[in-house]
Amino acid sequence: MPLSKAAADPPPPGEGPLSLNDTPRPRRFLPSGPLRGRIRVPGDKSISHRALMLGALAVGETRASGLLEGEDVLATAAAMRAMGATIEREANGTWSIHGVGVGGLLQPGQALDMGNSGTSTRLLMGLIASHGITAAFTGDASLSKRPMGRVIEPLSRMGASFTPSPGGTLPLMMEGLCPAVPIEYRLPVASAQVKSAVLLAGLNTPGVTTVIEPVPTRDHSERMLRGFGAELEVEELGGERIILIHGEAELRPQTIEVPGDPSSAAFFLVAASLVEGSDLVIENVGLNPTRAGLVEVLRQMGASIEELDAREVGGEPVADLRVRHAALTGIEVDPAVAPNMIDEFPVLFVAAALAQGRTVTRGLEELRVKESDRIAAMAAALTAAGARVEETEDGLIVDGTGGDPLPGTGGDVAIVTHLDHRIAMSMAVAGLTSRAGVDIDDTRPIGTSFPDFESLLDGCRA
Ligand SMILES: O=C(O)C1=C[C@@H](OP(=O)(O)O)[C@@H](O)[C@H](O)C1
Ligand SMILES: C=C(OP(=O)(O)O)C(=O)O
């Protein structure tokens, strides 16, 4: 299957998903001098998706600054426009969203192209489930392999019907039901996307929809639903979180400042920790406790990460992070921290490959159903770059070099990124700490979450 819909001339920012064209863009990431100065990573991807979705359901104008303008978020913007919202990017970079009101989504005139984005797909399936409209979802080769049964199951219980491809994948057709049926749903997997899909379906469902989370996951949906005026309660009981949303809500438009994405900052935290002489400040990084697991784990490994000017931005804790080179030591990573850093494991594996001694990770089955099988992809990639890695069913065991550079690939082979932005960026970081450089088969997927990653990286190690 082609990477995505071909687009000879990508549309200007804010005008729909920037589809990948058909020519891979390989690059060798060379050994680097110290990373220094001050950088700012783009807006949080999870918050950006939700700002567009909730803004599109409020009556009146929501304004969002700092929104991530990556392809995944642009796919959400295009879908919300196709269902009736008016969404514009102003010249100063602020986004203006005029919503249709809860219950007011229109039937899209064509298939919703979700590109590479699991979050767009699963959250929008939730929104549509309680509207009386039908929609078709398509995606790229990576997204078309990812499991959708995990949202189809609860949303079917609420009354929506689905015709997925064999195996419960995209492309799929769905038909929502209005009024939908409120449910009480215990999450069988630790997934903020599944939780959010049910809560978003609950927005336009009469009565109370309940989600029980045995393992807490990122809570941006809960924070933002409340911020937009939904009636939502959270109870903690014996380590579980019980979330209740009162349906047929009216959302009030908001002014949102999107904090920097900790999942994007992660690449620079690891790079500056590994490259000798580095002293880098990453400004405005979101440190929501359900997202900040990597900072804690790197500190346990000996990293030097200081939080400066801790403050609140858009209802989320934020700080500037000063990270300096430090010798890292391998650890056993507590599996309980996994949901708080689920997207950061690929780059943590790179840190482990350069640490002193052994790092053991477990409980990471969910990594196998991301944009790629991130356990297998990182085992193959790090092995190709000369690291010592053992793949287990639910994690990796990595024996680090103790700070010596990895041999690298040096043109012999190229790392296969499998249309996965996080594999590409993680192995770019590995290249900085290698002898011969690391070759990546394709850097285009980076545009899904961090379009200016390469220019920021090249800029701070000049
Ligand atoms: O809700 C979200 O915004 C996300 C939840 C996580 O996925 P899962 O819910 O599948 O764990 C994460 O991997 C993804 O990048 C964004
Ligand atoms: C898993 C990710 O995103 P999504 O599920 O939205 O494709 C990610 O960004 O690492």
TrEMBL record:
Alphabetical UniProt keywords: Amino-acid biosynthesis, Aromatic amino acid biosynthesis, Cytoplasm, Transferase
Annotated positions binding phosphoenolpyruvate: 45, 118, 146, 193, 374, 422
Reactions that this protein is recorded to catalyse: 3-phosphoshikimate + phosphoenolpyruvate = 5-O-(1-carboxyvinyl)-3-phosphoshikimate + phosphate
An MF annotation (GO) of this entry: 3-phosphoshikimate 1-carboxyvinyltransferase activity
Residue intervals of the Enolpyruvate transferase domain: 32-455
EC category: transferase
Active site: 343
Pathway(s) this gene product operates in, as recorded in its UniProt entry: Metabolic intermediate biosynthesis; chorismate biosynthesis; chorismate from D-erythrose 4-phosphate and phosphoenolpyruvate: step 6/7
Segments of this protein annotated with the region Disordered: 1-37
Function summary: Catalyzes the transfer of the enolpyruvyl moiety of phosphoenolpyruvate (PEP) to the 5-hydroxyl of shikimate-3-phosphate (S3P) to produce enolpyruvyl shikimate-3-phosphate and inorganic phosphate.
Cited HAMAP family: EPSP_synth
Protein name: 3-phosphoshikimate 1-carboxyvinyltransferase
Source organism per UniProt: Pelagerythrobacter rhizovicinus
